[in-house]
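Please fill in the sequence for the structure shown.

STRUCTURE ENCODING:
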């Protein structure tokens, strides 16, 4: 199976939803609000939520800022859930959800005032192409707001492999490398904000949810292909890397 589809499938399986919750990024909707404020979302904005998952942030931003917002994700099931969630939240007139690949956005050039992309840039295999696509669909003077995992050096090989196996992180990069991708595409005035504490919090939350998952497995309610003990060990190793500053989570903003 195509690596991108495999990743999308991972993020729409039941165990992933159980472990991450509906807002599938560190900092939850609090950090989404901060990102929305930093890129100056307003009622008149036409926004793209790239790799929107089940649309939790998309719906939240439509409510919070009153903007019109399109959610795009490669996962078909995610988009079906996002549409249903938006209907239930009463934001159907403000939101639009589409299945699509971030590396080949099938939307008109210069369509969006702002683009957000939370915890997904690190999953895209071709970051150069994705950056160019994001730049293409942004209006002149528009803003990007990305939040993502950063890796500032060499991770132990086993840990790198585990990150890919457990959370599909194909290649998280350093701040400098993300800046290079986005600047080469044409964005300027890049700013970075470290949000390490939110990543630590998410790791602790996932650890707690793993206990719940173990209970459900014990009761025969869910079946998983993963080795839970191995996931716990990996989480602890990631936590150590976050504490030492090798791994972190950042907000990135820029202007076209
Ligand atoms: C960690 S989740 C984040 C979801 C959402 N942004 C959030 O914060 O709740 C990553 C998402 O990226 C999507 N994704 C992965 N590769 C993609 C691609 N090439 N194009 C579009 N979406 C993609 C997955 O389907 C998944 O929903």
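FILLED IN BY: designer on duty
SEQUENCE:
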């Amino acid at each position: 199976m195509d690596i991108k589809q495999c990743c999308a499938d991972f993020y729409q399986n039941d165990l992933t939803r159980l472990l991450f919750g509906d807002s599938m990024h560190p900092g939850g909707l609090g950090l989404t609000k901060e990102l929305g404020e930093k890129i100056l979302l307003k009622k008149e904005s036409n926004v793209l939520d790239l790799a929107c998952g089940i649309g939790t942030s998309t719906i939240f931003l439509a409510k919070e800022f009153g903007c019109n917002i399109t959610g795009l994700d490669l996962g078909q099931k995610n988009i079906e859930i996002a549409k249903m969630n938006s209907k239930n939240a009463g934001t159907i007139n403000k939101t639009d959800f589409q299945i699509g690949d971030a590396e080949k956005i099938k939307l008109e050039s210069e369509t969006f005032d702002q683009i957000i992309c939370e915890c997904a840039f690190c999953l895209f295999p071709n970051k150069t192409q994705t950056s160019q696509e994001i730049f293409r669909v942004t209006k002149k003077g528009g803003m990007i707001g990305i939040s993502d995992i950063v890796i500032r050096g060499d991770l132990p090989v086993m840990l790198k492999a585990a990150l890919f196996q457990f959370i599909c992180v194909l290649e998280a990069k350093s701040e400098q490398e993300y800046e290079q991708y986005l600047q080469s595409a044409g964005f300027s005035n890049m700013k970075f904000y470290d949000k390490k504490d939110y990543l630590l919090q998410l790791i602790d939350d996932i650890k707690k949810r793993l206990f719940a998952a173990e209970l459900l497995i014990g009761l025969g309610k869910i079946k998983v292909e993963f080795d839970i003990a191995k996931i716990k060990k990996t989480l602890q190793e990631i936590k150590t890397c976050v504490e030492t500053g090798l791994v972190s989570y950042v907000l990135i903003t820029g202007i076209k």
